[in-house]
Design brief:
Blueprint: H1 7-14, H2 18-23, H3 32-78, H4 83-110, E1 113-115, E2 122-123, H5 127-132, E3 135-136, E4 139-143, E5 150-156
Antiparallel strand pairs: 1-2, 1-5, 3-4, 4-5
Helix pairs in contact: 3-4
């Protein structure tokens, strides 16, 4: 699959349309609409699967790092060691936890959409809106850009139902 940034130039060069490029074959006029719909559905499934994989990656990155950081803080708190080493271990653990948390929120923000419970609008908030919003799991309390109401907005994988 070519990069979407060069897709139109490539189609122009090959003298075909985007639908034919995505299909990998010349499409006759009578089956054009059917093939276009199949290609759009395939692309939508692919985007949804990539979003699902990104959200799973978020868990695989965040949980082990946070657990390791907490273990380091626990070790630094209860094991006999020089004060400078104790402070260094705690600072390193906290930096690791916060860094991984910011990365995980960035992954969550980019994968999928948030759905307003008031109007049903689906949108991608900015990184800082996502990061600063109170949350439980993947549901965050944010202000909808469409209706302007604040509410608990849950994470969904696709733009449409």
């Amino acid at each position: 699959m070519p990069d979407s940034g060069i897709m139109l130039e490539l189609c122009d060069f090959l003298k075909i349309n985007v639908n034919e490029l995505l299909s990998g074959e010349k499409i006759m006029a009578d089956s054009y609409d059917k093939r276009a719909e199949e290609n759009l559905l395939a692309m939508r499934r692919e985007v949804e699967e990539k979003n699902r994989q990104m959200l799973q990656t978020e868990y695989w990155i965040a949980f082990p790092a946070v657990i390791a950081g907490l273990i380091m803080v626990f070790v630094a708190s209860f094991i006999e060691m020089p004060v400078w080493l104790r402070i260094a271990l705690i600072v390193f653990a906290l930096i690791m936890i916060f860094t991984v948390t910011f990365i995980a929120v960035g992954i969550e923000q980019k994968a999928g959409y948030y759905e307003c419970q008031n109007c049903g609008h689906r949108y991608v908030p900015t990184y800082w809106q996502t990061n600063l919003a109170p949350h439980y799991g993947r549901t965050r309390r944010m202000k909808c850009p469409k209706c302007g109401k604040r509410g608990w907005q849950r994470k969904v994988l696709t733009k449409e139902d």
